[in-house]
Amino acid sequence: MINTGKKVTTDFLIIGSGCAGLTAALKAADLGKKVLVVSKKKFTDCATIYAQGGISCVIKDDDSFESHVEDTLKAGAGLCDVEAVKAIVKEGPKRVNDLIDWGVKFSCRGEIDLDVDEKEASDYDLGKEGGHSHRRVLHSGDITGKELLTVLVERCREHENIEMWDGAIGVDLIVSRRLGLEGKNSCFGAYILDSKTETIFTVLADYTVLATGGAGKAYLYTTNPDVATGDGIAMGYRAYAIISNMEFFQFHPTCLYHPKGKSFLISEAVRGEGAELKVLDNGEMVPFMQKYHELGSLAPRDIVARAIDQELKRTGQKSVFLDITHHSEDFIKRRFPNIFQKCYDLGINMAEDLIPVVPAAHYCCGGVETDVDGYTGIPGLYAVGETACTGLHGANRLASNSLLEAIVTGVNCIDHSQRSPNAVSSSNVDIPDWNSGEAVDSDEQVVITHNWQEIRQFMWDYVGIYRTDKRLQRAKRRVELLRREIEQYYWNFTITADLIELRNLVSVSEMIIDSALKRDESRGLHYNADKETSTDPETAISSRIIRTFYGTEQ
Length: 554
What we know:
This protein is an alpha/beta fold. About 35% of the residues lie in helices and about 20% in strands. It has three domains: about 10-250 and about 365-420, 3-Layer(bba) Sandwich (FAD/NAD(P)-binding domain), CATH 3.50.50.60; about 250-360, Succinate dehydrogenase/fumarate reductase flavoprotein, catalytic domain (Flavocytochrome C3, Chain A, domain 1, Alpha-Beta Complex); about 445-530, Fumarate reductase/succinate dehydrogenase flavoprotein-like, C-terminal domain (Methane Monooxygenase Hydroxylase, Chain G, domain 1, Up-down Bundle). It has helices spanning about 20-30, 65-75, 80-100, 110, 145-160, 230-240, 270, 300-315, 330-335, 335-345, 400-420, 445-460, 470-490, 495-520, and strands spanning about 5, 10-15, 35-40, 55, 135-140, 160-165, 170-175, 185-195, 200-210, 245, 250-255, 275-280, 285, 320-325, 355-365, 365-370, 380-385, 390, 545, 550, 550-554. β12 and β13 form a beta hairpin.
């Protein structure tokens, strides 16, 4: 039985507790604004905490903004928004300094390389990852995300202007269009389910920020945490925000292949330190990446993931292998302490043994379409981080650009809200409380479990690294049927966090499929064996999805 809570008012409602959302929260709070941050589980349950590589940022004299921009555009296969790339790359150093001021500690060279000159020991140890022409990735060992999130959560908890709710999941945005109001569609806040008390609160806010992360759980194998069910993207879609480029789902090439590994990520930074990809072929371990790309094992992720997929199909092996045995155990322990220990606990000594790896769904390059300020075009509504599609990533994200985008847009959206007349007031609007109608408690929870598993299986089989028209059409037929079943179930039975996630997951899965069917080419992360490949920016078009309203696209 769902209870209806009292209305709650705040200046900023931030849905999601990763790097982007918490950066926005701190910036708004420092302006004296009242901020409410909601996290559907614990505040450490988000993709940020799993980020191993780091933050790509130009901080050395031998690097340049122009070089970082060029690397990003090249990886994006002609679909990046050039001005967005320039703006975000240029803001990187300022935002990194914010993190340092808040207490984030990045690794220095003397901590990693004990033989470095004393003069350079205090310099930041910059990593190099796939697609980058320079070492420019700031990191905290191989637990950058954990260090970052720990500091941000502490700063938010200390701030008197920030209230934090855990165990609270967004149900739907409150927008004028769904209320039947005339005029421009505007956002007034959201309905929030407190899972602990089974209460739905009506949260009214001048500004609402979607920062719920990505949607990796749409796939059977993913590096994402269990919370990555595309909630913000699905809520944005139902609020008539534009959704862009959902076909570009990045598969990380090197996920640990082990029955007890649970999709543990082997950071791209391992290849940045010289690890080479090899495959067991006719009894011998053979390097293979050089025949696919001039950068070898440090090629962009889409190329590496497809190459691994092809090698697995060619050889019939279940995994390929990473070889970093040219480094000493001492070096590996200092540079990758978390990865080394995880592998060691599973019987793999990185200094002596090869690491079995396979690709897994990792990052959603599409999302709610915004500008570099996170503005959705709907007054009162912003989207930041992986939930948004700013144009930075184009058809393929450059390694470690995700945390960069998160900290930049997290700040930008607050700045934009204060200089632009986009605030909306609900004082003259009759906002109804959540109405459960005649919904009853369900005695068929198996429906949720079964549908969840079925979605992830056919998405992996038909809408994965290697796609065809026939596979996509098969997936489309199946997802339409499942969506109708889930929507009926959603309105007939009392909602739970699991049911909300399932509804969002099937919605986002259909967006991925629809976007893939719209694209009449192979580009970047979207590889369709029936289509020609293009990287030409002159022919690059975003695949936008606009929610249909009474049969008409609005």
